[in-house]
TrEMBL record:
It holds the Pfam family MMR_HSR1. It comes from Paenibacillus lacisoli. It comes from the Bacteria. This is Ribosome biogenesis GTPase YqeH. Residues 65-228 form the CP-type G domain. SUPFAM superfamilies: P-loop containing nucleoside triphosphate hydrolases. Transmembrane segments: none annotated.
Length: 374
């Protein structure tokens, strides 16, 4: 039974879900005595905040889309937060269809993962091009790092510039840093002492969270959309911390001849099939080991050593993941391309004479070729 106060459902101040005290396996559960806590949060949020422990409670994907579809009928500023490390994996497909004519401010989080010497104007232009390719019209783009508090002054300026007297809807896929950024907005725009649940686990926010602002408007945090083509949605909780970098990426450069293979633990594999001797730069989290071998030995090596020499994941965890599928790409001359693996990182092709390459990754994981980010 949903808890009520003055006829209204009591909601978790962490994730926004209506609270209930009867079914521990359903979203919004908390023990009855916990209703006396201030602020009132569900058991799931309590465990995340105090023990860094996630629960398996999820909300139906159709509910997420139904919530998003309401934004087009509002007069609002829409802030779309994406993860620079998983850019193509965290962009909301067809967002323009949901938001109608409302202005969209694209906020690109986790720029602290790129080298400090990066050309930020080029990065911004790259983001603008990629967003346009996906049909998203933006009024502005802000590069930031919620964790390092970089770019946040510019975000506040942009919100002030484009909001007017509108509400602000914040949208994004799971695990892009959405709640962390909203907590910063709350501190600047509202006297309300409320902190959204933030963790590294996907799907932390389960329902719309309405945060009133001092001018009578509100910031509305929407649930994170769960996209199954991202590694973050298929790996174990232990491996999620390994895959998701929390420090600047250290590019790993490999000089390869045709007929050589790189394994990224037992998560994915990169084959250099045809082309002149050239270098490839891998941008992945430092917790995932890279193993080089000959292409002719790659299948046997995986069969005999996946989960051991090639790890993570373990053999038991591999059994829980989809089987690998193969993606082949011909890289044209002078293309300056990355091979992107959603949630794992990317490999930059540094040669200018073209190459034939293949990527093996769990079925359903998004793998594509894009213009080089760096």
């Amino acid at each position: 039974m949903t808890e009520r106060l003055d006829g209204l459902a009591v909601r978790c101040s962490g994730c926004g879900i209506p609270l209930q005290t009867e079914n521990p396996d359903q979203p919004g559960y908390l023990p009855e005595k916990a209703l006396e806590r201030e602020p009132v949060i569900c058991q799931r949020c309590f465990r995340i905040k105090n023990y860094n422990e996630a629960s398996s409670v999820t909300v139906d994907q159709d509910e997420f889309l139904a919530l998003l579809s309401k934004i087009g009928d509002k007069d609002a500023l829409v802030i779309h937060i994406v993860d620079l490390f998983d850019f193509e994996g965290s962009m909301i497909s067809g967002l323009q269809r949901f938001v109608g004519n409302n202005p969209v401010l694209l906020v690109v989080n986790k720029i602290d993962l790129l080298p400090k010497v990066s050309n930020w104007n080029k990065i911004r232009n790259w983001v603008q091009h990629q967003a346009k390719e996906q049909g998203l019209k933006t009024v502005d783009i802000v590069l930031c790092s919620a964790r390092k508090n970089q770019g946040f002054d510019r975000l506040l300026e942009a919100v002030a510039e484009y909001r007017g007297d509108r509400d602000v809807y914040v949208v994004g896929a799971t695990n892009v840093g959405k709640s962390t950024l909203i907590n910063r907005l709350i501190r600047d725009y509202s006297d309300l002492e409320q902190e959204l649940t933030t963790s590294r686990y996907p799907g932390t926010t389960l329902d719309m969270v309405n945060i009133p602002l001092d001018d009578g408007r509100a910031i509305i945090d929407t649930p994170g959309i769960v996209y199954p083509w991202r590694f973050s949605e298929i790996v174990s909780r232990r491996n999620l911390g390994i895959l998701m970098p929390d420090k600047p990426l250290k590019p790993a450069v490999y000089q390869l001849n045709a007929g050589q293979t790189l394994f990224f633990g037992a998560m994915a594999r990169f084959d250099f099939i045809e082309g002149e001797h050239q270098s490839f730069t891998c941008y992945i989290g430092s917790g995932l080991g890279i193993h080089r071998t000959k292409l002719e030995r790659a299948d046997q090596l995986f069969a005999e050593h996946a989960g051991e020499l090639l790890s993570p994941p373990t053999k038991e965890e591999l059994d829980e993941m989809p089987e690998w599928t193969r993606h082949e790409f011909r890289i044209s001359r002078n293309s300056q391309s990355d091979v992107f693996i959603s949630g794992l990182g990317w490999i930059r092709i540094n040669g200018t004479n073209g190459a034939l390459i293949a990527v093996h990754a769990p079925r359903g994981i998004r793998v594509l070729v894009r213009p080089s980010l760096i």
